[in-house]
Amino acid sequence: MGQFTPTPHDPDARGHFGPWGGRFVPEALIAAVDELATEYDKARLDPEFVNEFKRLLRDFAGRPSLLTEAPKFAEHAGTRVWLKREDLNHTGSHKINNVLGQALLTKRMGKQRVIAETGAGQHGVATATACALLGLDCVVYMGEVDTERQALNVARMRLLGAEVIPVKSGSRTLKDAINDALRDWVANVDETHYLLGTAAGPHPFPLMVRDFHRVIGIEAREQILEKAGRLPDAVVACVGGGSNAIGIFHGFIDDADVRLVGVEPGGSGLDSGSHGATLTAGTPGSLHGAMSYVMQDDDGQITEAHSISAGLDYPGVGPEHSHLKDIGRAEYFPVTDAEAMEAFALLSRTEGIIPAIESSHALAGALKLGPSLGPDGLLVVNLSGRGDKDMDTAVKYFGLADGGQA
Amino acid sequence: MSTLSDVFAAAKAESRAALIGYLPAGFPTIEGSKDHLRSMVESGCDLVEVGLPFSDPVMDGPTIQAAAEQALSAGFRVRDLFDVVAAVSDAGGRAVVMTYWNPVLRYGVDAFARDLAAAGGLGIITPDLVPDEAEDWMAASEAHGLDRTFLVAPSSTEERIAMTARASSGFLYATAVMGVTGARDVVSSAAPALVARVREHTTLPIGVGLGVRSGAQAAEIAGFADGVIVGSAFVSAAGESDAAVRALAADLAKGVRSAPATV
Ligand SMILES: Cc1ncc(COP(=O)(O)O)c(C=O)c1O
């Protein structure tokens, strides 16, 4: 099964996964998403495009990424745990997979300017990197709150030649960065591609971004069969907009016995109201171009998400996840900030791997899930990124500067 | 013929374009928005668009974003919208609602249409709902006798203009510039070309908006469109005073009367 082979799980021609997805965008953007869908349909069948994409993944991003067993971490989970090491990709997360694909498409469409939103800064860094590589102009929108908590990534983007625009409206996080990117896109659509960083937004983004990340699941399935001799009992990933999760899920989606588990940002706990657990606690609505679960009040006003992790701090989610939840193929639950930070410290100490705080949510999910599987159970956790960017948060959270210990 | 068609027919009978003014409900306050909207009607707006403040207005520039934020932080609720629309209708004005789609979805498309019709509203302008996704709204608008105003843009293909015109009733909204709302100094050169393209496909009246702020610009647009839509400039005026709102409406009303209507 190739990365771009159509699957029985694809949306209809208008981008609907069951009742989810579609295109809830201004008419002014329809021509652009149509052009993108047409170009992607051609590219996914074009050996030249596919080969160039694969070459960049291999020679630039460093794929395939490793699958590493985490035996000492596993003692705390009560079951065997393997980590899909997206943290080892160039630029430090899974985001580079999608970015390289879309940057190549941008070239194919003859556009010279790329805009992107970013939360944790990982997507922004990956986009700035691909633009430097391919000679594209790059503008990244980032909520002001996030420019502060992910300052290192702001510096990386600027070093790579991108313009970073702090967004001061609304909650000043990822949601508002997407709003401003959409406003820019409407005004400059002729020469600009909006390189969306997750498997959300109007069709064809959820399908296309998912396909660029399918490489994660395809590799992971081969690797676990080779190393453990069997399929895992569950595949666990964190869910912000849902791109790393959907990418690894798809490798196993036709393996009915493999549970697909998405872990959401529970913030201070669901009861506190301060969280970003869209699939667990949201309701159907349209945000940023698609029907999906969203966090909203009784009036349909989008509510602010809260998470210690900038990359998960988003009140929406990609439409395919809403579909997988509804049909019962995937399951979703939240872990709190505190549980994620505990897992963050635990993996660092036990395995010598510092995970991103986003990915730490998946690890915390594994710690919760493990005991029910027992010592013979087998989990594959998508380690979507590395934690270097999160040192500021960790220093404050654990008091590391004052001789504190995580 | 819908009531909305009457609005355009009446303007056309006077050989002029209709003047359409926009203001978000609840800005600067709920009572304030009623006062301003009534002033807009009294000072020459043939139709008002009552905006529903939304948390994530991706088609709006800073002026309308800030107005929506102010209304929401003062506690504006969707049910207040119908109250504001009723105030306009009760004063003899004509109102449509302009809203992002999510609040309508959440309220229930049919319930929203029902309550809007009961308040005397004539239809809804839907900036982020294209006809492709509008099945429920088509049914609800039919059921409650409301008009549907979809948008066309300079980037729309001929096929999409034709399809959008077929799905619309009352009038069609042509966005004069590619971009978000906000007052601009010059009328976009794309607007006349877009209107000419749209006329190939429909006899529906065409309103042109995005960026108009002066009587002179209104006159220019009235030279080729059936309706001149003014948004951010009214929001800015409402931020000053009711006198400013009246003065702007009067200036624009003079503008639409100083150019002969097309066709
Ligand atoms: C390392 C990492 N993991 C996960 C995410 C969440 O995004 P998604 O749900 O699209 O994978 C981000 C987003 O910034 C990230 O940087």
Automatic annotation (TrEMBL), chain A:
InterPro entries: Trp_synth_b_CS, Trp_synth_beta, Trp_synth_beta/beta-like, TrpB-like_PALP, TrpB-like_PALP_sf. It is an enzyme of class 4 (lyase). Its cofactor is pyridoxal 5'-phosphate. Its EC number is 4.2.1.20. It comes from the Bacteria. Residues 63-385 form the Tryptophan synthase beta chain-like PALP domain. Keywords: Amino-acid biosynthesis, Aromatic amino acid biosynthesis, Lyase, Pyridoxal phosphate, Tryptophan biosynthesis. Pfam families: PALP (PF00291). Pathway: Amino-acid biosynthesis; L-tryptophan biosynthesis; L-tryptophan from chorismate: step 5/5. The modification N6-(pyridoxal phosphate)lysine is found at residue 95. It catalyses: (1S,2R)-1-C-(indol-3-yl)glycerol 3-phosphate + L-serine = D-glyceraldehyde 3-phosphate + L-tryptophan + H2O. HAMAP family: Trp_synth_beta. Tetramer of two alpha and two beta chains. The beta subunit is responsible for the synthesis of L-tryptophan from indole and L-serine. Belongs to the TrpB family. This is Tryptophan synthase beta chain. It comes from Lentzea pudingi.
Automatic annotation (TrEMBL), chain B:
It catalyses: (1S,2R)-1-C-(indol-3-yl)glycerol 3-phosphate + L-serine = D-glyceraldehyde 3-phosphate + L-tryptophan + H2O. It is an enzyme of class 4 (lyase). Pathway: Amino-acid biosynthesis; L-tryptophan biosynthesis; L-tryptophan from chorismate: step 5/5. Belongs to the TrpA family. The alpha subunit is responsible for the aldol cleavage of indoleglycerol phosphate to indole and glyceraldehyde 3-phosphate. Tetramer of two alpha and two beta chains. This is Tryptophan synthase alpha chain. It comes from Lentzea pudingi.
